[in-house]
Specification:
The protein is mostly helical and about 230 residues long. It has a domain of about 110 residues: Alpha Horseshoe (Leucine-rich Repeat Variant), CATH 1.25.10. The chain is built from 15 helices and no strands. α13 packs antiparallel against α14.
């Protein structure tokens, strides 16, 4: 594939790789079919590698509102050039969990204000903005090797507060954040287990699901052995 330079060319290539069959498969996993072409993640990652980092192109791709173009935007954008306003606009435009999570894992968690935005978004009412907050917490727990334990401990009150949100894409992200923080090291594992038991004690079905699922993973022998 020759080097892709502009937005029009990228969109053209994305449309050439469209797959109705993939769209059907994605829908089974709760991925929005709105403005979706059905281009797989391996193909998007390959395109991102060939394009290289390009902030201007990322912004243009986001504006197309095409599902895969937005994922690709997160893959090629330059974290140092991302502003708080851009993050707010993108988070407000998320309409599918995969676009949200990919942006968090590939871009948002590498910005200077990732920790602050995780807290801010986790308190928002809009479903996918709120998910962004917790997906960002989970991504930071995995990718930010230099962050201090105290920075993750500060996330726990937000996790507890949102643990009774019954919306599927929120509760799964809350659970994801709790599990990933708890798998970071032994100290955070112990604290995450304590938080999970606190959530488990709440008289709420969603909270119990979040806690039970997290405890199941955080206490298994394989995780405990790795952390020790």
């Amino acid at each position: 594939m020759e080097k892709i330079m502009d937005c029009q060319e990228v969109v053209k290539k994305l449309k050439q790789k469209a797959s109705a069959k993939n769209i059907e498969g994605m829908a089974r996993f709760g991925i929005s079919s709105k403005n979706t072409l059905g281009v797989s993640m391996p193909v998007l990652r390959l395109m991102a590698k060939e394009i290289g980092k390009d902030h201007k192109l990322a912004l243009e791709l986001w504006q197309t509102e095409i599902h895969e173009a937005r994922i690709l935007a997160g893959l090629i954008d330059v974290p140092e050039l991302v502003t708080k306003k851009q993050m707010d606009i993108w988070a407000g435009g998320f309409d599918s969990w995969d676009v949200c999570d990919q942006a968090c894992m590939n871009l948002f968690d590498k910005t200077l204000f990732a920790f602050a935005k995780a807290k801010e978004y986790s308190q928002k009412e809009k479903e996918f903005v709120k998910r962004t907050g917790f997906a960002l917490m989970a991504s930071l727990a995995v990718h930010d090797k230099k962050a201090k334990d105290s920075q993750f401990v500060e996330f726990f009150p937000f996790i507890v507060k949102a643990s009774q949100d019954e919306r599927n894409f929120v509760r799964k992200a809350v659970n994801w954040a709790l599990r990933q923080i708890g798998k970071r090291n032994l100290t955070l594992n112990k604290q995450a287990i304590k938080v999970a038991k606190e959530i488990q004690a709440l008289d709420n079905k969603t909270a119990r699901w979040i806690a039970n699922d997290a405890l199941r993973e955080l206490t298994i022998q394989a995780i405990q052995k790795r952390l020790k």
